[in-house]
Amino acid sequence: MDHIDKQILFHLQKQARISMTELGKAVALSQPAVTERVRRMEEQGIIEEYRTILSPEKVGKGAAAYMLFRTRDCHAFLDFIQTSPDVIECHRISGEHNYLLKVMTDSTRSLEEFGNQCDKYGTYTILIVMSSPIDHKFLIPMLDQASER
Amino acid sequence: MDHIDKQILFHLQKQARISMTELGKAVALSQPAVTERVRRMEEQGIIEEYRTILSPEKVGKGAAAYMLFRTRDCHAFLDFIQTSPDVIECHRISGEHNYLLKVMTDSTRSLEEFGNQCDKYGTYTILIVMSSPIDHKFLIPMLDQASER
DNA sequence: GTTGAAAAAACAGAGGA
DNA sequence: TCCTCTGTTTTTTCAAC
Is the pTM of this model over 0.90? Predict the structure, then answer.
């Protein structure tokens, strides 16, 4: 993965539907060349997938929260959260809690309801997300000239 | 937003580069019809953007952690994390901590280093992510027949 | 890696159910 | 609002360099 690959990824990150022709212009390469590079990075698994990002508010997921969870029965717990449409993420973490969940619903009222459903799996702390100063930063930052070599 | 729109979004979520023609086939609609629906949802802000998802491991971000932060000087803190390439997310949360950060680096060693840089902004607890049973669940789930009406 | 031409596909528009 | 049909543009593929 050289500098041009990183440049390609930088552009693709936030414009997944860009055409190979346009992408070629952006990185000063011919279209067949970028197409081949993208194909190779897909094959290598560097590029995992192309996602469409929806507005949480406009699809009824305007309320977000994190939950620090402590459970004894990991298996039953995982089964539950896999099927719950409100659980967007689940991470196994170090520390006194087992899991960190990200939950999204239409309102804090629904968050509370979700909490009720969780009661039987263990104890938890809910952290309501009031705002997200950084919702998502891209993994590949814009490249300066110095890093070209 | 009707049932067909949701079906369209369902497909777009994980295949942002699909063509309108193919998408039309998937939802049993003609190409001009889906194109128009997608255009409208972009305009309405339901569709926010199209992203390419990269493999964290393969771009040198194999180690992830969450940080529960408590700071007094929010302004200086936000300035700092905005510019740090390791901070992928930042959420303002309720509870005894101000912020929840998601940090990604190449190793736990780098996480430690990042922690050192944070010391001057306040106190924090690091939660190392050991695995992610659910890294990301899509906001629009697959639709069953019953929800068609 | 480049260009350039041919083939395939996708898209945008018009008219009509 | 959707469909079909058509013309145009874009993209891809495949050569040769």
Answer: yes
